[in-house]
Prior knowledge:
Elements: H1 3-11, H2 18-24, H3 27-58, H4 77-83, H5 85-103, H6 106-111, H7 113-120, H8 123-133, E1 140-142, E2 161-168, E3 171-174, E4 186-187, E5 190-193, E6 207-209, H9 214-235, E7 241-248, E8 252-258, E9 269-273, E10 283-289, E11 298-303, H10 307-316, E12 325-327, E13 338-343, E14 355-361, H11 366-378, E15 386-393, H12 403-415, E16 422-428, H13 443-446, E17 449-451, H14 456-466, E18 471-477, H15 480-491, E19 499-504
Parallel strand pairs: 14-15, 14-18, 15-16, 16-17, 18-19
Antiparallel strand pairs: 1-6, 2-3, 2-5, 4-5, 7-8, 7-12, 8-11, 9-10, 9-13, 10-11
Amino acid sequence: MCRTLLALVRRSKKIVSRKTRRLLHKYKSFHAACGIAICVFSAMHVGAHIINADNFSINYNTEYKALNVARYKNEDPRKIIFTSVPGLTGVFMVLILFLMSTASTASIRASNFDIFLHTHNLFFIFYVLLLVHASGGVLKYQTNLEEHPPGCLQLNRTVKYYAPLAELNGEAYLLNTEKIAPNSLKTRGELLIDNSTLGICSKDPAFQPHFPETWLWISAPLCLYCAERLYRFFRSTKPVTITSVIHHPCNVIEIRMIKDHFKARPGQYIILQCPRVSALENHPFTLTMCPTDTKATFAVHIKVVGDWTERLRSLLIQCDQGTEIIPIFQHMKNPKIYIDGPFGSPSEEAMNYEVSLCIAGGIGVTPYASIFNQLLEKWKEYKLQRLYFVWICRDIQAFLWFADLLCILHKKFWQENRPDYLNIQLYLSQTDGIQKIIGEKYQALNSRLFVGRPRWKLLFDEVARSNRQKSVGVFCCGPKGLSKDLHKLCNRPNAYGTRFEYNKESFS
């Protein structure tokens, strides 16, 4: 989860290929898979130690007391667990792991993000306990192997036992032992051995606990992560300067900001924090406008859907309806906003393909807005030669978030004699109020507005037929159901040799 380091690696095209960069975008899925593996193996580990605690109690060794974990025979196994360092730290680690895993479920993250965030920060306590966990001395080894080899007879003790005998070429041998003299006593196919036959130990065995080696496995990645978090902390200590706030239809606000030495690329996102809203809570938002060589302004579009966004809107704007630009000088008590980032996302790759298909559902259009703004500035500098853009919304007013930007971009490509560069398809899933967008200002969009939902199979076949034997980057930012359907279509073979490479937008 070192997102700054991952963004740095992905940024260098000379170091890693596009296929490798796409794998690096799976860091969140890999993190979740590691978490599941930790839970599974922890359950096995705990179950084995519960059995061990019972065995320690029943099989108390009176001869070698230093080997025992139990203090006496038939000691209560629960007492062994809750009074030993490994047992007590293990109980707390299991509790932390349970809280982290249950709070990471999609339902809890969607209903109360604070619970997920705060319980996940318990990982630091978990690692501290893990370092202490192995220091209880349960596992021990013998230190005086030369004075007391394993299996030898102890001093001042006569032991007689029978060992299995093997015969080869008329000579007798002990199985897995050295050669025995032929005149040794042989009875019933076995050899009677006494102290004169085997060596006698000079000392009793001595045991010592293993030195904990957990730090060898977790110190390097933990130090790397702590170093990144420290860097991110210092990077985000200075608040941004808010230049304007725009109130868009359908409960969306746009915040335009400036920050010294801030650089970002289209498709990246930032983590935004407002202490007056919440001292600990922060949320990721995709950049809809990136700073360029000519302007330092960057922006995010925020959909007001929860308590945190509602409180933020009430602090930034006073109006509830309409679209209004509010300059910063009108707010003498503007809240301080801090940002962390930018961080990379799969949408960065949209301009690294010759052909890209960008699909958005509702507010999921934000990753592509920064790409459109960048194409307005210098579209000829990128590898991208054709861009298919599909946007699905329930409310007709939602298209007004970026209607002006789409119209300007469409006009630009017509003036550049590249009308085939941008293919726009807008879909309205609900038909109420469809006439509201009709007007001279948005004629370029009205002809590309459809009612209903896209017929994905026909759309993919059309894209494949128009781009034979090419690799098409498919980018999706929307509901899980939409993402799953698109992923299946990308894996479906076609008759035109076109390869669809799927990229799912997912930031955290």
